[in-house]
User: Fold these one by one.
Assistant:
Number 1:
Amino acid sequence: MILQKASGVRIDGRKQMSKTAPLHEVLNPRFVYLPLLQQNAPLKRVVEVGASVKIGQVVALREGFGAMPIHASVSGKVTAVKKAWHSSGRMVDSIEIENDNQNQLDDAIRPEADTDRFTRDDLVQKMQNAGLSGLGGAGFPTYVKYQTKSPIDVVIVNAVECEPYLTCDYMLIEEHPEKVLKGLKYFMRAAGAKRGVVCYKAYNTGIAEALKPFLSNYPGIELRPVKDLYPAGWEKYLVQQVTGKTYANLPAEAGAIVDNSATAIVFADVVEKNIPLISRVITISGEGIKNPRNFLVPIGTPVKELVAQCGGYADGLDPAKAYYIAGGPMTGRAILIDELVVNDTLGSVIVKPFPEEKQHPACLGCGKCADVCPVYLAPTEIQRAFEMNDKNAVKALNANKCMQCGLCSYVCPSHIEISDFVLRAKELLRKA
Amino acid sequence: MARFANGKAPFLRMSDARDYGTGVIQRDFMIALVPLILFAFYKNGVQVYLDGNIAFAEMFYPIFFILAGGFMSTLLEGLYFTITDKSVRTMKALGMKLKTSYAAIPGLLLAMIVPLYTPIWVLIFGCIVATLVGKMIFGGFGYNTWNPALLGYVAIAFTLYGVINDAGGALNASEVLVDAVGGATPLGVLAGADAISYATLVAPYGTLWNFFIGTIPGALAETSALACLIAYAWLVFRKVIKWYVPAVFVGTVFVLSWLIGVIAGEPGIWFPLYSIFSGGLMFGAVLMATEPVTTPRNPLGKLFFALFLGVFTVLFRFVGNLPEGVATAILFMNIFTLPIDNWTAIIRSEGLNKKSWGRFAILVALILFIALYGVLKAGGTYSAAILLPQIGGLIR
């Protein structure tokens, strides 16, 4: 009870605002900007400026760990290599492609007549060739997970989406329910797993209703509601809910692989139509957006065009008194200039005016941050160790276990940037 | 192109809401004091007036006294800010400062735990120690090591108790007239007693029911276990305190007192009940052992802290023969808040494994050792007194 309490906080989801409008799927941006950066790995460009490209043509390569190709998301002409704002909060060299609106497909994109012939290795190879990376936010190369040597019993599709405001996974499942199950079926084959589980939030009955009619055609796949808590979508939490086991570093240690539902939908297309990762779904929401909604867009689309489709910013929005958040409001990052482009990990852009001004006192030591921490850390102790620059203490307090869910700052009654202290303490360790 | 503001994740905060935050926590804490103050007003004001022992206006003295404490510490903190803080130039700036530093609380609490007839100038002295030494010198709200009110209390108790006794002490005008009491509070009697007996410890004050309700001599507002339980229920309901801190603290004292009674040949359940209802134990457990600034932050730390408080209270009360073990125990444990917090944070984040069990074992061993020593020593002292005539001092 006190030593290791099942943690999680119910957060007002504010999801309704972006659920009313249907998923917007047709969008042809005039330019796309493919960032030459994935996670922390710079990409190697393989097309020259001036070359014409087709949808699905390889334009860049990720090398070293997670090596895989990156594909053009529209057809047209490579016009420049420009700096563009990336969801990591930096400006990153990007390949600018001018869209010719012809939607010419690369020769590699063709339907597969017989998907049953693919072996486990074939499927993993397909993930790599398609440049498939996790669309949930971390952007981990998917095929690397399936190259594991550990035996995998279960593949979990994560449709929990526990960040407030975000509805993109939900809307995409509503639109393509069967593809989720297809993608999961192929994932299970790629992992050699007999069991597949789709996890979703218990109140989100729409997901269960959308998937149930197809379930009988997919043996071994089950639905699993989880509690409406943050961070219920955390990999470790899901693995523990489904398998009852826990692990230190990778879910594979517990015989599980976790993939986002949007990744599963893309993988269904990868296997059946050889369409690589060229588009993703994104929520544009927040009180600072006039008509929040979801989009399925080519990767590299400027977010500005999406905001324009939403009717622009809310009336009377003062940008100097609002956040422009890349990612969810709990873990996202404030972007200072609204020139962001959609990359593979960007699941949402939230525009949120400042809350009412309020005066905040010093830390009173209530310990709510330690109460809610899903990995049982003591954030105030880590802050103290960090302020004394004591690396050993930071290490002893297991600061590295922090996965930056942001709950400690969220519950802090004194509005202290406590999760930021933990983040900086982790950086202190990395420097050592 | 628009320029947006910079900020840090998460962009949603509970503290953005009007009805959540440190201010609300402190407000709820002050509300918890109301039943205690009302009881003090009833016991030391209304009841005494109805007995015909004081004039009507005097009836309000307990409330005036407590408010005077709150006022004094606010005034002192305001003076401190005006002198030391250059950013405080206007009354408005000062008001803002005081608003987020909750200046009244130390003085209020201090006035509640001193005897009724403490001269005002002694109270002021206590407030100076509490607010200036206990709180402001450490850096103000959120940075103090010791519980300010208790520091003020101990400063008074160790230097000016004679003055308080000369001025009338803890007994109100009605209690003075009761012969059986003999001018002592229950724990004063215990400190002087060499055996555990219902006749000397409880009977002079009525029954245990009086102890529970609080109609026994003692400090101004801390005698009522009932009022403390109401405050406890409110604070737990409002999530200001952890339910298990007072429960474990009081529970430990209960169990150890019972063991002492058993060893001393008095296994009746009245003795542990007497032990937890007398003195400032309930008050201290609900309002001071849970005080967030000076106690550990993480849940496991709070648990260990409460256990330590329990064993030290027993040690100080029964072995140290201090009339008030609770205040000493809390102030003493405040010193160890940081190391306990650090150790328990490591234990909790590791779980019990190779790296952490050593620390865990040391903490548990310390508690067991102090508890065992306190129980055997105190139990031995009391039983020796009983058995001495018969077995000729073999035990002693």
Note: Chain A touches chain B through 68 residues (CB under 8 Å).
Number 2:
Amino acid sequence: MSVDIVDKIKMMVVIRTVEEKIAAAFFDQKIFSFLHIMAGQEASAVGCLYDLSHSDLTLGNHRSHGHYLAKGGNLDGLVYEIFGDIRGCCKGFGGSMHMLDRKVGFMGTTPILGSVAPLSVGYAYSLRQRSGTNVAVCFVGDGAAEEGVFSESVNLAGNKGCPLIFVIEDNGYAVNSTNFHRKSPDYNHQDHFKGLGAQYIRVNGQHVWEVSDAMQRAKGFALKGKPVVLHIDVLRRHGHSGPMKENTTSDYRLDFDTLEHRKNNDCVALACDYAELELGHSNDWLKELVETTSSKITEKMDTLIGGINVRG
Amino acid sequence: MSEGKFKFIEAIASAHREGLIVNENSLILGLGVNYENGADGTTKGLAAEFGKRLMDVPVSEAAFTGMAVGMGNSGLNPVVHHGRVEFALLAMDQILTQAAKWNFMFGGDYPCSLGIRLNIGRQWGNGPQHTSSYSSLFLNTPGLNIFWPSRPSEAYYYTKRLHTLKNPTISMEHRYLFGTSDSREVKTTAKKIQTACSYGSGEKVTVLTYGDGLIEALRIRNHIPDLDIKIICLTSFINDRKIDFQLVDEIDRSEQIIVIDTANYNYGLLQGTIGQIAQNIDVSKKLKIFSPPFAPCATAPSLVKDYYPRAPEIVDYLISLKLTKDPMKDYSFDELHLPANYDFSDDNPSKIFESELN
């Protein structure tokens, strides 16, 4: 793992801070848009996208604020769009579920579950026509990966040799339904996606360095025309929709998935531990890095939010 | 086929060929479009000339249509073929929710250059699940333009435009018309995009129709030449669907309006059109509707024979109004149940309505 983990820690903190500020604003009735917060699973977005170039394309879903930022999307455009200000990245037409910054290769997000998969096959096909060194990456949740069109798209991408990486961010729940409730007892992701001709990689999404490595491997397969399903297990702090305050164990969460468990497996803390143990950065320095980054973004967010008035 | 004429399917294939040459970023995809006689002959011979730009796909309508939407958003101009409207229903999320809204929901300057050809079934064997057009589904969706050719020369005109699109556009094609023939000399003179055309100029009877209804209208008109029946045939539904005021004026001047709709009328294409007209003028006392019963189309010939509007029954209606005395011979079994082989070559439009295509 390269020393760039420090940059990735900073980006994870940026996303965490932005998401929590937006969540807080939601309770102040300042947000006029559906909201799906990804706080807790920042390592997935950053591990997948931070190392990609602007010529690599990304498409996301309803929960893509972090994907947008990790790919280099403009913060002002995101905040304005989520707050219903026409200065937003979609000029106010889209809202929180439609993130767009084409300058950095962030080609759009769409909330209809599974829809982004075939769209991404089309983008990857176009990409292959003009570049042999770039890939497309699309994000779905574990629920959307159950859609028929998702499996169809994996097959289609393989059939057409598209350089595409399908990322499944799996927090274990589709809204409040666990895998146990939604899947056949013998359901097997690996058998299924390998059977469709994809390379299947599963990785711990709380470890940003592992996600980055997995994405590097995935890119290698994709550039050879073999689509990849990159299955990332994540821990999300908030519920499905709206920033539900889940300070205690919610009814729908499984027994192991306690507040303490999520805290002990926090991706930012784990990345700091990694940077300390493997790369020799001091604990104090890392703590300072996190705090400085967070307070800078907090200040920036306060300024941005302070300049928004959609009621006027 | 004689040199100066082409059939509906040949008109489409010919337009595709020219479109693929005009725009090298365009391609055609769909089930079996690369077969020698692909897409019921409408892509015949193209794979030999254009190779992989004729793209066969897995039997996954939602996925390959979505892939085309993604291509259309990223610099290519795909044209998707679905052999029936019903097959395309599996891809409605991609057509209605993604393609039609893409440019809008991202704040503009992000168009989806996508053409979709949808075939509407008719004639024997098609039955309840291969004969619907679901016109209102598409017409009532902002962001989609709809072409609806009624004769081979229009099929050529519109299909060629599918290769150089700015916004997602559907071309509705009646398989019933695939065997009809027409002059290769394109009839439309529209500089913008043709939205309708009229045949004849008499003011006693006006027939309002579209698509494969035009054949019945022309048969009636040609059966009673002295009456100079005016036919208004709607051929595209673009932008905000606002009806051309000139067209309303033409309807207003007519003493009798006959509507020929080959699909279920209630809440459909022509009822919507009449609704727009009725916002401007009162047509209630001069309107007669000919359309299928509000039911799906059956399969057995004995159950289908009265389903679609037929010229002879409409002539009988004109006899009842004392507008003619000359009944039309009822259709034979073949005329009722086999695809039409009508030749449009001598049916020249008298007026073209056109509008700027956004």
Note: The first strand of chain A starts at residue 57 and ends at 60.
